[in-house]
Write a sequence for this structure.
């Protein structure tokens, strides 16, 4: 396994719980705006911490400029999950199918936002 794949897998392991909670917070009949917001903040902070080699709590102090970029970029996913990953607007979601799809897109969007921010420094 390449170092890049190991890094990505480690990110998946760190983010899997929040991703599943985020999906539950968006499910038909289970919508929870506070949980949704909390999970999105945690997911953004986790991906920034992983890329910057920091602890989760240090991201706010050291990489505070990255957070808006990652949050805004990942809203291309979070605002359109039905279109991007096939999240159902009605009925019970298949979390086992959707969580990896969500991660792939979130990782792609978040990583791209961080790299753009780093290039502009």
């Amino acid at each position: 396994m390449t170092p890049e794949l190991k890094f990505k897998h480690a990110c998946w392991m760190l983010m899997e719980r929040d991703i599943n909670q985020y999906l539950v917070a968006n499910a038909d009949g289970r919508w929870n705006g506070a949980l949704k917001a909390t999970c999105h903040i945690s997911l953004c902070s986790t991906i920034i911490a992983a890329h910057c080699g920091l602890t989760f709590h240090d991201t706010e102090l050291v990489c505070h400029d990255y957070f808006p970029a990652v949050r805004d970029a990942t809203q291309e996913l979070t605002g359109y999950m039905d279109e991007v990953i096939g999240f159902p607007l009605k009925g019970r979601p298949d979390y086992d199918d959707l969580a990896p799809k969500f991660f792939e897109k979130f990782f792609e969007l978040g990583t791209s936002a961080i790299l753009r921010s780093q290039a502009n420094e």
